[in-house]
Structures are given as structure tokens and as C-alpha cells.
Amino acid sequence: MRIVVVGGVAGGMSAAARARRLNESAEIIVFEKGPDVSFANCGLPYHVGGDIQSREALLLHTPQTLGASLGLDVRVNTEVTAIDRAAKTVKVTGPQGTDVVSYDALVLSPGATAFTPPIPGMDLPQVTHLRTVDDATALAARVEGAQTAAVLGAGFIGLETAEALRERGLDVALIEMAPQVLPPLAPEMARLVELELRANGVDVVTGLAASAVAPAASGKGVTVTLSNGASADVDIVVVSVGVRPNSSLASDAGLAVDERGAILVDDEQRTDDPSIWAVGDAIAVRNQITGVTGPVPLAGPANRQGRRAAESIMGVAKPAKPVLGTAIVKVFGLTAAMTGASPRMLDQAGIEHVVHHTHHLNHAGYYPGADQVHLMAAFAPDGTLLGAQGVGRAGVDKRIDVLATSLRAGFGADDLAELELAYAPPFGSAKDPVNMLGFMMQNTLLGTLKLWHAEDVEWARENAFILDVRSAGEFTRGHLPEAVNIPHDEIRENLELIRELAAGRPVRVHCASGFRSYLAHRILDQEGFDSANFDGGMLTMQTALPELDLVTGVAQHANA
Q: Which of helix, strand or coil describes residue 452?
């Protein structure tokens, strides 16, 4: 049997290696268009920033090591230019010229191509992408003589690149066409990331795109002009505005692709040709929560897809599970992570959901070094978990991993509440933040927790009695102009006053994080008030509504 793999790195090399482990006698040929068949593409920004100093550290395997350890015939700098499905051959062009190679099984792992905006100046030498080891080494070298940079696109790679350049001492402008950085995050979670970028000296520009790049009038660097007419001179421009499936080889051969060009495969990675499989960034996958199909360019799924393709070729594959899109990124001292469907994705798919925010500590508060983990989870009306996001300085990764596992298992609020997670004061709390999400949704299902959200604030300011149950000091530092301050531990003694001030209006309660206001809400609810608790408290309100005007000054306590 001859297996031909087109493209290396995560998907292709996983397929080739797994095929060898399953079949020692198979002839396995890997064609890689570039010079490096197996490299750590997720580590490229860290090479630019100096965390990974050696270029060689990014090279996981070479044709020689793969030949010695796995008996693979790996040919780099060799491009597959055409597939003849009827003859079961591929046309290849490389250092030895052009050749035609036959196959019994063909695995396509062409990856994705960096998208280049259709604006003037993208071909200037100061403009680069960050997709290969050579890109990273060239950018790292160019930084030595640079002072300023613009990064176009604030997705995962854009954020990591902006941090890398800032760590190297450059003044960095991060430009994102969407209204927020890291668009897959909910806006209130992305705001925390933006604040961290700004705190570390990154000039963040959202809601605008670059419209042109041109040589600077000074003769040094380039001028980046934005869609609003503003411009700035920089030494380096890094373009990171997304990728597109590199599927022309497949589509030219008549294989089915979707409207975005992603190769269509079944649950064993097989295309609509029974002898051709496809894996990695170039294929369409199905989201477990929304059912929407499309490319998901992540290393973890690509590795598993490669393994599955090899198993399918050998007749031992287990069907693929839909993807969750679990991802994580470091942004200076902050971590942002997500899994499953975001509220925006659920809205687009027409899926009804309930959102909960919590701001509990990453470990026991009495143990030194505790920090807040900002978690957001979306649940179906029956309590089934649909997605989660987290931002914080410590403990975000393990919470999102637990929640990703819970999503795969189909867990709901009751399951999250009952999860038995490792606890000791340096590591967690007896009631972990994941448990707390379960408790909160249980309360919603039970009817003991009614929420109001950022989209309800304007309505509440005009139609409700807003009760701020923080301390007088917190209230003084910033509050809604319409709010009356009665600390949560004084609610019981002020019930008649609250009834008088509410004057028949609904009562909308909030505190800093949502816990003290929940206690107040329970009292008010049981006293017959139409009460609701703000989801996530003032912490969430301010990040969800960054333009919200708060007033400061001495608290006007209702008893005064």
C-alpha cells in the first residue's frame, strides 16, 4: 500500500506517523511545499518576542529524523500541483523537477493561507505575515532596528504578535476592524483583554481597518492609513487578519468544498472521493453546539484529524466528534480562553440561552496570591451547558478545560454543581468557580434567581428602582446616577423604605460581583418585590458598557 500525504505540520504528520504505527509495511510519502515539514507554528510569536530564542527549537522533526524513526519518505520544498483522481496519481514539482506519483490512499493537509486585505501597499517589504519559521526569524531580525509597529488584526495571533513586539521594546498599534479585540470573546470579556493591552502600552484601535499602506514621506518605514483617514508612520506592519482554507488543489480536482472553500469530509475525514482524505485547517468541521460547519484552524483538532484519517485508511477509525473550538491565549499577564458556543454564536444560530457571569477567586481567599477568575457560561433553558469563556491572571486554563470536558460529556447545571474538583487552599476553593456556575444556573431553574443584564440597563434606569447594595465607600467611588445605596446587610431593616422608594416599580439590584446583590435579591423576592439581580455585578456592567457614565461622591444612604 502506498499512502501519499500532501502537507506536513500538525495534520499531515499526525496522519503519516499514525499510519506507520498501524502498518509497518506501508510505503508512506510526505510532500511538503515549504522547507520545514514539522514545526511549532503556535510558537512563532514567542520566537519573535525572544521567549523561544533558537530557531531550531521550533523545528520538531526533519526529513532525516522522520526517516530514521518512522521510515517515512519526506520530501520538502516539493509541491503537489494536481490530482488525477481517475488514475490515482499526483503531479509534484520539486528540486528534482516534475514527477507523477501514484497512490492507494491520499491525505490532503494543505493548511490555510494568510488572508491579505485588498488594499494598496501589501507588497511592500515592511509588510509581513507570521505563518512560517522563516517569517518568524525574519521578523525577529527586523525588530532589531525598528522602533514602531502596526499589527493588523486582534485575533489570537495578532494579540500574541503585539505582545511579542511590545516585549522587544517597540511602540505597537493594534488595529482591529471589529468593535472589540479578540472577536470570538463576548464583548464584556474582550474588554478585560483590551484593558490589559492598554496597561502594557499597546495602542488599541477598534472599529477601524487599514485602508492603505504606503512608503513614508520621511523615507523611513511606511505610513498606515485607517478607514477614518487617520494615519501613522511605522517601521513594521504585521498582517494577521485571518486565514482562508488552502483548498485549491482539492477544488481543482473536483472534490466538494463549502462556500468558504473548506474541503467537505465525513466523520472519518474522507472526502467525496473514497480514496482521498483531508485534515487540518483546510477542512470544514461541525460545531457540537450550533451544528454550524466551517473551518476551525486549531492545532488540537488537526492532530486528531490526522490520526483519524490514518485509522480510516487502515479500517479501524472511530467516527469524529463535533468540535468545540476550545482555545486559549496569553496576553501579557492575562489569560483568555473559551470553549463551546459564545452568546453571539447562539444568537446567530437561533438557540435560546441563559448567560451567567461569576468573578470568584482562583483559590481560597485567605491563602496569599488569590486573584479573580472572570467566567461566563451560557446554558440552555433546561440547564445544559452550551459554552464558556474565562479571563484572569491565574486558574483560567484549568476551569476552561473542566468546562470543555463538561461540554463534551453533555453536562448541565446539576453536573457542574456536583463536580468533585481538586481542592487545597493554594489550588482552589471548596466551592470552585465551576461549581458556582452550576449553582447559579440551578438557582435560575429553581426560580430563586432572576437576572437583569447589560442590555436591560437603559430600561431599568427609566422604569425601575435601582438598588446598589455595595458598601458606602464603593458607592462613592462610582455609581449609576439613579441608584440608591443601601448595603446588603441593611436590607432587612429598610424594607419599608425600599417599598416607599420603589413606589410600585420593579427593583433592580446590583453589587460589585453579583453575590451580595443575590443575598439582597433573595430577601426582596421573598418579601413580594419584583426583584432581579444584575448578572456579574458592577464588574460585568462596566466591561459590557464601557461608555457608561457613573457619578462619584458621598453616598446618599436612604436613611440619611
A: strand
pLDDT score recorded for residue 553:
83
Residue in the structure block whose three cell numbers are 499526483: 90
- The pLDDT score that the predictor gives to residue 555 is 56
Distance (Å) of CA 531 to CA 218, 391, 435, 479: 62, 29, 25, 19
pTM recorded for the entire structure: 0.94
CB atoms closer than 10 angstroms to residue 75: 18
Question: What one-character DSSP code corresponds to residue 320?
Answer: P
* CA 508 – CA 114 distance, rounded (Å): 48
Q: Tell which residue, 546, 523, 431, 527, has the closest CA to residue 469.
A: 523
Interacting residues of 182 by C-beta distance below 8 A, sequence separation 6+: 154, 155, 156, 159, 190, 193, 329, 336
Q: H helices of 95-148, where? A: 133-143
Residue with cell 459564545: 342
Instruction: Confirm if 417 and 359 have CB atoms less than 8 A apart.
Output: no
What DSSP character marks residue 41? G
Rounded distance between C-alpha atoms, residue 74 and residue 67, angstroms: 7
**CB 375 within 8 Å of CB 357:** yes
pLDDT band at 519 (very low <50, low <70, confident <90, very high): very high
Give Cβ neighbours of residue 375 (< 8 Å, ≥ 6 apart).
357, 358, 359, 360, 388, 389, 390, 399, 433, 434, 437
- Give residues with Cβ within 8 angstroms of 316, minimum separation 6: 22
Q: What share of the chain is helix, strand, coil (3-state, %, to 5)?
A: 35, 25, 40
Q: Where are the beta strands (DSSP E) in 207-271?
A: 210-215, 222-226, 231-234, 236-239, 243-245
Is residue 511 part of the annotated active site? The answer reads no
Q: 284: closest CA among 37, 112, 82?
A: 112
pLDDT in tens, 384-436: 999 999 999 999 999 999 999 999 999 999 999 999 999 999 999 999 999 99
Q: Which of 23, 27, 42, 268 is catalytic?
A: 42
Distance CA 135, CA 122 (A): 15
Residue type, 458: E
Can you give the pLDDT at residue 558?
46
Length of the chain: 560
pLDDT digits (tens, 9 = 90+) for 46-91: 999 999 999 899 988 999 999 999 999 999 999 999 999 999 999 9
**Could you tell me the three cell numbers for 408?**
463534551
What does the longest C-alpha to C-alpha distance in the chain come to?
Answer: 90
Q: How far is CA 471 from CA 60, 517, 525, 547, 556, in A?
A: 55, 11, 21, 23, 12
pLDDT digit string, tens, across residues 438-493: 999 999 999 999 999 999 999 999 999 999 999 999 999 999 999 999 999 999 99
Predicted local distance difference test score (pLDDT) of residue 202 = 98
119 close to 213: Cβ distance less than 8 angstroms:
yes
Residue 334 backbone phi and psi in degrees, to 5 = -110, 155
